[in-house]
Amino acid sequence: MTFTIFFAILAIFVSLLIFFENRDPAKTISWLLVMIFLPGIGFVLYLLFGENLRSSKVKKTKVAVAKFLNSQDIKGMISLQILSATQKQALKDNVMFHDLESEGKKKVMQLILNSERSPFTLNNKVDIYTDGLDKFEQMLKDIENARSYIHLEYFIVKNSEIGKKLKDALIKKAKQGVKVRFIYDEIGSFRLIFHPDFAREMKSAGIEFRPFIHIHFPYIHRKFNYRNHRKICVIDGEIGYIGGLNIGDEYVHKNKKFGFWRDTHLRIEGESVYMLQTIFLVDYYIGSGQKLNQQELFPSMAYKGDSLIQIVSSGPDNQYESIYNAYFSSIAHAKNTIYIETPYFIPDDALLTALRTAVLSSVDVRIIFPSFPDHNVVYYASLSYLEELLELGCKVYLYEKGFIHSKMILVDEEIASVGTANMDIRSFMINFEVNAFIYDEPTISRLYEIFEADIKDSKELLYSDFKARPIVQKIAESAARLFSPIL
User: Fold this and answer.
1) Exposure pattern of 379-391 as b/e (b: 16+ CB <10 Å)?
2) What is the mean pLDDT of the segment spanning 359-382?
């Protein structure tokens, strides 16, 4: 009896706390329902996933980021403030774009410049990988050729076949005198606790292998919900990798459940690597308190290519939800096409309204989505949102060749984004993420070709067929959607 009263009082207290946080009404209602229907358990879930620490987290990380980026040695290597201010003025004076057809592109670039330290770079060469085998083969070659240092940052690292290949390659380079720094997310890579030799071997070779933020009792609830979902590799400051592929055998087609794993990853040579490097250095500083400021981290860059790119980070270390804002602006300004690939589709009301408006305005909106789930609750919640767009005329394709994990959005053949952010609330509002926004015609055309090829490996989901799905599935979707704001 006493136990029941205690949890009842606790539930009321937490419910009041949630109510007075003045957060999104949908999230408030969802958490209140959790507290009502899951007494006791709901309180634990709230501690792990629900406490709104973003404002305090932003304040602390902003101080750390500002301290790092405003240091004179970093300014001397890459003057982000001056570069961004110059580019803002160039866009304002219409120096970069003279035709009205580029207005949407210009708006997105201005938005990113105004909300982030994310200057656009013109000197880049981009290679696109749609297969984990090809990506890792090339990355291992680049690691083999590394001269000075290798920086890696991954959400998931597994003691897998590909993980061991990477580990051995890094140990070899470390023994040759190459400095290797490796950041991983402790929640995403939790399986490593069962394989202590994986980390021990690298550390004994002189590799800095550390979690982004170490999670320990009693502060686990303050860090558990904020996951570093970024996937970055920087080699000698000249080559960078960004995209959706983690380090595990499922990403190279060796998992029976998923089979062929379809993802999108970029290899970049050029000045955008400076931005990937900066994000890594900030994350390293936040996690370790150590400032890396050697001149070799930002080497002079010869001509590489003509790709126009902005690297955009988003998460608790940023004041604004920059990737979300850029997605919203791109969709809102779309005139002809919006093509999306995502393994999860849980938009908030504003983004869903923008997509509805685009469909009703005769914009060709297409979404490629997995034909089977990797996370059931998120999958069925996603289907409920897709139904609304299907009814209006959006085309949805279920990928059948295997599992599609690609995070890509293409708009009007003028804007493309590839990176780590899913089309869901967690990626937009909670996780540490990073995307490349691309504006040059050849790279975007290639991404459109890849999207069209993926459609051939998919089956169109017709609204008439979907509407006739079993009642059990409809109930599952409705229940999952109810909790989608807090997933």
Assistant:
1) bbbbbbbbbebbe
2) 96
Q: How far is CA 330 from CA 35, 177, 276, in A?
A: 37, 45, 22
Q: What is the model's pLDDT at position 144?
A: 98
Q: Residues with catalytic annotation? A: 229, 231, 236, 405, 407, 412
**Cβ-contact 151, 234 below 8 angstroms:** yes
Q: Whose structure tokens read 């150590």?
A: 290
Structure tokens at 17: 């706390």
pLDDT tens digit sequence for 37-57? 556 555 555 555 555 544 454
CA distance 354 to 342: 17
pTM for this entry: 0.87
Q: Give the integer Cα–Cα distance in Å for 124 and 145.
A: 20
Digit-coded pLDDT (tens) for 424-437: 988 998 899 999 99
Q: How far is CA 99 from the centre of its chain?
A: 32
Cβ atoms within 10 Å of 350's Cβ, excluding its own: 11
* Residue 358 clears pLDDT 90, i.e. is over it: yes
Task: For residue 300, count CB atoms less than 10 angstroms from its CB and return exposed for 0-12, middle for 13-18, buried for 19 or more.
Answer: exposed
Provide the angle, in degrees to the nearest 10, between the axes of the packed helices 349-360 and 376-392.
Answer: 30
Q: Bridge-partner residues for 184, per DSSP?
A: 154, 211
Share of the chain above pLDDT 70, in %: 76
> pLDDT of 49-84, one tens digit each?
555 544 454 455 555 555 555 554 555 555 555 466
What digits encode the pLDDT tens for the residues 374-399?
999 999 999 999 999 999 999 999 99
